């Protein structure tokens, strides 16, 4: 089972469409997230729930505007749980 949703979030000074896909695995739930960069290429990263219950990005390579939008990304997940 998986759940998909999209959110428009301001990141890097632009409105961007982030696509979320909920994944189930042995350790619990995590999200695969993708978003186009300024050139239209897709950036894909994961978000996991930390020990304090916050959703954290695991972006590799590190993308500053994704890290800056982490709170908004976390709130988007919480709204859909």
| SSE arrangement, N to C | EEEEEHH
Query: What would the principal axes of the Cα set say about the shape?
Result: globular
Mean pLDDT reading: 89
Q: Percent of residues in beta strands? A: over 45%
Describe this structure in words.
By secondary structure, the protein is of the alpha+beta class. It is built from 2 helices and 5 strands; from the N terminus they run βββββαα. A hairpin with a 5-residue loop joins strand 3 (28-36) and strand 4.
Give me the secondary-structure topology.
Layout lengths: L3 E8 L2 E12 L2 E9 L5 E8 L5 E4 L5 H5 L1 H11 L1
Antiparallel strand pairs: 1-2, 2-3, 3-4, 4-5
Jot down its keywords:
single chain, 81 residues, alpha+beta, 2 helices, globular
Entry summary:
It is built from two helices and five strands.
